[in-house]
Amino acid sequence: MFVIRPAPRWPHLDIRELWHYREVLGTIVWRDIKVRYKQTFLGVVWAILVPAFTATVYVVVFGKFAKFPSGNVAYPSLVVAGVIPMQYFASALSQSSMCLVANLPLVTKVYFPRVLLPLAAVLVPVVDFLVGLPVLITLMGLYGTWPKGVQLLSAPAFLALALVTALGIGFFLSSVNVRYRDVPYIIPVFLQVLPLVSGVMYAVEEVPTKWQWILAVNPMTTVISGWRWAVLGAPEPIWPQAGLGAAVGIALFLIGLTVFRASEPRFADTI
Amino acid sequence: MPVAIEAQELSKLYRLGQMQAAYGTLRDSTSRLAARLAGRADPDEKQEIWALRDVSFNVDEGEVLGIVGRNGAGKSTLLKVLTRITTPTKGRAIIRGRVGSLLEVGTGFNPELTGRENIFLNGSILGMKRREIQGRFNEIVDFSGVGKFIDTPVKRYSSGMYVRLAFSVAAHLEPDILLVDEVLAVGDAEFQQRSLGRMEALSGTGRTVLFVSHNMQAINQLCDRVILLDGGKVVEDGDPSAVVTHYLHSALSSGSQISWPDDASAPGDDLARLLSARVVNEDGEALETADVRRPIGIEIGFRVVREGPPVFAKIKVSDNQGAIAFNAMDVSAHWNDHSVPGRYVATGWIPGNLLNEGRVSVEAGVWTLHGAKLLPHGHRYDAVSFYVYDPGDGDSARGRFVGQLRGVVRPLLDWSVERVD
Q1: pLDDT tens-digit readout, A45-93
Q2: Does B269 lie in the same domain as B247?
Q3: Domain enclosing residue B94, as ranges
Q4: What are B101's strand-pairing partners?
């Protein structure tokens, strides 16, 4: 038995309901993975090629010509270790921001907790991420930059921070996009600037101290420097800075979720 | 009898802007804000509409409840509220049991995926567990009849196959409470009949069904009780045949006559204008309901404004599903080569025993022939309408059969029978 009533004034998240609909989440993730690779000739190979191309460009332009600082790690592995999580973040963010409009027939014709749509959108690119990992591992082998012990276990936590941050922004932008279709224009601009201020093509510790604060408020800096520390044995992240980044990521998640839940009752009416 | 659905004063307010402009861009909003700051009225503001207003009813477990009403009466909004797609503005509803909803067939179908994959996708989205889908998979495929194409992407399906597969998944949904919106309107007649059969079978197993439709025959056939919505309110709640009859009577959006008092407002151009249209019986009296056996006259008044090519009256007759019965125009030769200014009345007679029972809508107009094309001058869709009934005396095309005969027309044919052995 359940009761249908006007939208509550204060949004909350019904975890029990989410659990009840877990199969729908699985179905949507499965559908998106299937559909994504179905019509491409190279299929899943793209998940390797895209980061490989991007990394090659970065290595040539920033590593060879501009001679960006790479700390104590070989520049190519430094870059690839940055590109792969950044690529994940970019896909997760853009797909979760578009998810409500992209699933318009579902939003207007069936009920399930809408939270599942952005959630599915940030889970799908995890597949690309995993497929892209061998590129990194190959480079690690080539340059002999292996992880230094137990810190490797923290790698998933840094990836989780990328997921949570992308989900938070995705929650926010997808609800905005229901009403204002300006979002698709904003995202590419944002995603072009983001790698530059997240340390994708340079070692974060090498940035002059007076500019460090810019990197500190950016959760992706934490993700990338933490990830490099965990898998490449790069120097430890500057912890206060990394902590601030993580806090910002979690704050974005909570704000995004609140906005999403608060506007959810009107999705079907305004979309 | 336990109650499955208890709706208590459900109300839903829409802002018209919200409904019309499906979405805006920031620019629209900023210009609206600018208008407001400048003290001008925002054109979208204050245009509010109660799509539902204090709708209360109970549905007993196992009952099949039909919901009828003209477009915009709030039927779909009610289903959207009950299925939780949107929230009510006021009121509440208590629902006891697992709900399955069917507001559209093939929701979430993805053209790139195969039939098999779409069955799982659609089934899961409609609320079936993976195990249930697996258990009913063969049944679903059999019912759909797409058999050997089950591993073909559905984008290669014909629209008929697509709809059959989609409906087939939906038809195997077995919740305690099923909410259905107009899905029987898809597919060909044979398929609609099958869908109706499936719905009947479902309701026979003690499921509670809420059924929205414009198909009065289906409503009559399936429902135990019918609610009539109008302007977001429940205006009638009761026995199907009584509510349906009342609805059909009130739903004639056009009357049996229409006229335009002055030439300026009358539809038309500088050559000819439509002045009036009327449904009449053989005595020239306006009628709203017509005996299926008697001829029905459609009387069209028009003015020829200037001399020009010959002007003639034309009607298009459709049934209440919008299916065209026929087009007919006045082919008698009043004018050999040009029309003469003045007022005219033309009456076309639809023979008795031609139209089927139900609401009939007539488009009326004045036309000219332009080369090989018909050129409209003044015309009006759904100008007049009337209701054809069969008193059932046994001398119509129905004979002594009491059910519905399908078809837009129902002519009384001459039959000859010979013994041939």
Answers
A1: 888 888 888 888 888 888 778 778 777 788 888 899 999 999 999 999 9
A2: no
A3: 3-251
A4: B179
Taking an 8 Å cut-off on Cβ atoms, the answer to whether A23 and B130 are in contact is: yes
Q: Which residue of A has its CA nearest to B112?
A: A35
Within a domain: B79 = yes
Cβ A86 vs Cβ A161: under 8 Å:
no
B19 contacts in chain A (CB < 8 Å)? 269
pLDDT at A271 > cutoff 80? no
Partners of A23 on chain B (C-beta within 8 Å) are 124, 129-130
* Residues B7 and B24 grouped into a single domain: yes
Chain A hits for B13, Cβ within 8 Å: none
Q: Which two tokens stand for residue B278?
A: 């009327």
ipTM metric: 0.86
Neighbours of A145 (CB within 10 A): 22
Tokens of A128: 């690309």
Q: Are residues B289 and B231 in the same domain?
A: no
- Shared domain for B290 and B360, answered yes or no, is yes
Q: Residue A5: list chain B partners with CB under 8 A.
A: 87-88, 91-92
For testing contact with chain B, the best of A104, A110, A270 (most B CBs within 10 A): A110
Residue B103 DSSP one-character state: S
Q: Max alpha carbon distance in chain B (Å)?
A: 92
Task: List for chain A the helix, strand, coil content (%; round to 5).
Answer: 80, 0, 20
- Sequential pLDDT tens for chain B (421 residues): 789 999 999 999 987 654 444 445 566 666 666 665 665 555 444 567 889 999 999 999 989 999 988 777 888 899 999 999 999 999 999 999 888 888 877 788 888 899 999 999 999 988 888 999 999 999 999 988 888 899 999 999 988 888 888 888 888 888 888 888 876 655 566 667 777 787 788 778 888 999 888 777 778 878 899 999 988 899 999 998 888 877 776 665 567 888 887 777 888 888 999 999 999 999 988 888 888 899 999 999 999 999 989 999 999 998 876 678 999 999 887 777 888 999 999 999 999 999 998 889 899 999 998 888 888 898 888 889 888 888 777 788 888 777 778 888 999 999 999 999 8
CATH of the domain at B308: 2.70.50.60
Q: Do A4 and B129 touch (CB under 8 A)?
A: no
Chosen for mutation from B3, B5, B26, B96 (greatest number of chain A CBs closer than 10 Å) is B26
> For chain B, how are helix, strand and coil distributed in percent, rounded to 5?
25, 35, 40
Would residue B395 count as lying in a domain? Answer: no
- Chain B residues with CB under 8 Å of A109 CB are 85, 103-104, 107
Nearest CA in chain A to B103: A109
- Run of H or E including A100: helix A75-102
**B contacts of A1 (beta carbons < 8 Å):** 94-97
By C-alpha distance, which of A29, A198, A221, A183 is closest to A93? A183
How many other C-beta atoms lie within 10 A of the C-beta of residue B93?
22
Number of domains in chain B: 2
Please state, rounded to an integer, the average pLDDT across all residues of chain A: 88
Residue B52: the pLDDT is 93
- Give the separation between CA B162 and CA B166, rounded to whole angstroms: 6
Whether residues B261 and B328 share a domain: the answer is yes
B113–A31 C-beta distance less than 8 A: yes
Name the residue type at position B323: A
Instruction: Assign residue B147 the CATH number of its domain.
Output: 3.40.50.300
Contact: B22, A35; criterion CB under 8 Å: no
Q: What is the pLDDT of residue B22?
A: 41
Are residue B244 and residue B276 in the same domain, yes or no? Answer: no
B8 and B97 share a domain? Answer: yes
- Same domain? For B216 and B264 the reply is no
